[in-house]
Amino acid sequence: MEVNCLTLKDLISPRQPGLDFAVEDGENAQKENIFVDLLRMAPKTPIKNEPIDLSKQKIFTPERNPITPVKLVDRQQAEPWTPTANLKMLISAASPDIRDREKKKGLFRPIENKEDALTDSLQLDVVGDSAVDEFEKQRPSRKQKSLGLLCQKFLARYPSYPLSTEKTTISLDEVAVSLGVERRRIYDIVNVLESLHLVSRVAKNQYGWHGRHSLPKTLRNLQRLGEEQKYEEQMAHFQQKELDLMDYKLGEHKKDGYSDSQDQQLLDFSEPDYPSSSANSRKDKSLRIMSQKFVMLFLVSKTKIVTLDVAAKILIEESQDTPDHSKFKTKVRRLYDIANVLTSLALIKKVHVTEERGRKPAFKWIGPVDFSSSGSDGYSLEIGSLAAVYRQKIEDNSQAKACASKRVTPPSSSLDPAAPSPVLSADSEYGVTPLAHQVFSVTHTDLQAFSMQNGPNGQVGVVSRAPAASDVESLQPALLAGQPLVYVPSTSLFMLYGRLQEQLSPGSRATSERDSRSSEVTAAEQSSTPSVQKRLSEERKPQEEEPATKRQSRVYEDGPLSLVIPKKPSDSTDMAPPETVGDGGSASLDDLPRNGERPAAEALSGRAPSAWGNPSGRTETEKPSEEKDSPTEPPLLQYLCVQSPAGLNGFSVLFSGSQIPHAVGPSSGQLSSLSVPCMVLPPPALGSFPVLYSPPMPRPLSSAPGALPNSGPVNLGLPGLGSAAHLLIGPAAMVNPKSSTLSSTDPQLQGPLSLNLSPVMSRAHAIIQPESPACGGHPVSTVQLQQSPAPVTPKSIRRTHRETFFKTPGSLGDPVLRRRERNQSRNTSSAQRRLEIPSSGAD
DNA sequence: TGCTCCCGCCAGCAG
DNA sequence: CTGCTGGCGGGAGCA
Q: Where residue A169 falls among pLDDT bands split at 50, 70, 90?
């Protein structure tokens, strides 16, 4: 079977997809799906599908193309005359019926792949009726074709937090083809994403990907707007009514001075120059508007739970539609669509609210919260919220079990905010959630970007696997507590303390040597978070700061990660045995080469505003400042921060110093493994931590990765270490024995695995292995991500990844492209199609 | 049986 | 006028 698979792929593309299947995780098959889809689609797609212009696709990052599916399609169309393709063509031509079926198969391809890669590949080769029948049998379930799943695949294609310099253009055609769905479906996704500013329309059939940078702001704005519009009251009103009677009297719902004008208000908010429209205009009913309103409901709700019927009623009321059952039904359908996308974004999760009359479908907000008050940056918010969510999930689980029989459907107003969970259906819980299958690919893409940006020297192999696909948490896009972590080359190491520490090691000062930007991160500035933040990102504006730190700590607690790092004989100050890293605030790390630092510093400061995809910009501020813990105490939370220059989208990884339960985990064999809770932080977030710059740990091997001992004290092989520092990151063995095994044993498998980062969850463990043979002679042949456009190991890398992989900072910055880009964004003037949510909101 | 929500028709509107 | 967008609701999968 495998042979067939490979053959087929070969026919279609030069790439070596074969490996993709090997790693099928079922939960993380997005990449493969895309690939396969192409295969599928190509034959059948003489479709209106205008030849996809690759250049359009990644206008700004041509280097990436090797991966874009579009190319494949084109290619295929251009040279379809492979035996298989030929046969398909003939069959298709022979019978419309068959063609139709073929088409359907194509649509399902992604899902099927997910299900069973091998089977899939087999089928592809088969052309006979039997094959067709087989396809029918293989037909994915409705669930598998859900918009949510599709959305995940969509999201998997782009980094959650793209670099400022990274400008990604989304071609609806290409995406549709890649994902094997009709464009119509993509519109649904894009519309919702646009409502949250994750994307924006650049031109016809073209969208720009912004990522989640401005999400916090957008949400803040929506929350504010929701409050202004008294959505909470409306919700309470409807909910109360629900309690009393099921009657749905739309006419009566108007209240609180809420008026149609408010609808307009939303529109205006979104698009200042938006022409006034009638309440019933088409655009008023747009999915974007609905999405915004839907989100607003969550944001203003104390319980953070919104039932679809209530949301639908409110929406109908606002739209002034005739309140008939049909409208209601339609509204609910749309809400499901929106909810699916939001769920994929890990902003909400499905739950059920039990009432007198039975269970009611509802969704619970699990995204960032309190941004309005905290004012912390988006990253922090997300981290914090995620941590909270994580905890809550646990609570929910227990609660659900304990209260399974209870019925609770209190009006939002009556609920205690502190007690978030109303009775939730057991099935809604993590692990068992129907959405479990939804894997967050964001991580995956982020890693790609990250890897690609590793310092010049740094080559990183990232291997990660979703521990438990079932974990809803894994859905969290980025900065998840459990994200497979990562990090890497050319970085600087710092010991960060959960709280402010006066006593900074002298060394920290020494660090000041770095350019001003980086120096800011150091001690002196530590306390003054705001200033630091500013410097770090010029754009950022100081805002409320707060819980970031606190939250971060929580996150950290929530999601311990297993880290396996190349051990490096340390000699200096504090050695960095795993333990040390773990608990000692004093632990010192290798001093990274200056040059290595510089990149890091630049990365931090360099988060330049991305003119492009930044609708509202990353102005979001991140100001973690509050340090609640007493500075003097041994920090409960001590972190080892590995700063990434450019990688990881500028995020830094924090390893908890205090928790190193599984310190050395020989699990993977010869690698020293260190289980360290860690989290990824955006550069700005670091400002909240006092930084202790640790003296370089003399490591003989530092420059020679190969020399790393297989076991023993763990040292982070970092950037400074030299180009050789290749890290392999994967899930901890403990989490997923299987994964661990793979990581340590079969290089081949590793590659593919590395690509499946999507599901990474809070529980994910990251294993960093030195790639060099030195690692205990580990056959660790991880995928090496290179900055260079040239794919190192195409086989192991999936196309989508490549997109980001091969992007080089330099290429991204192409002036011409930028210009073009700018123009494009401007062209987006079409008021009707644009929804502008001031991400600058609070301002 | 009711909840979900896929699917694709077809109208609005931009280019 | 073309074709991109996306509202809309029938109807089928699923629990």
A: confident
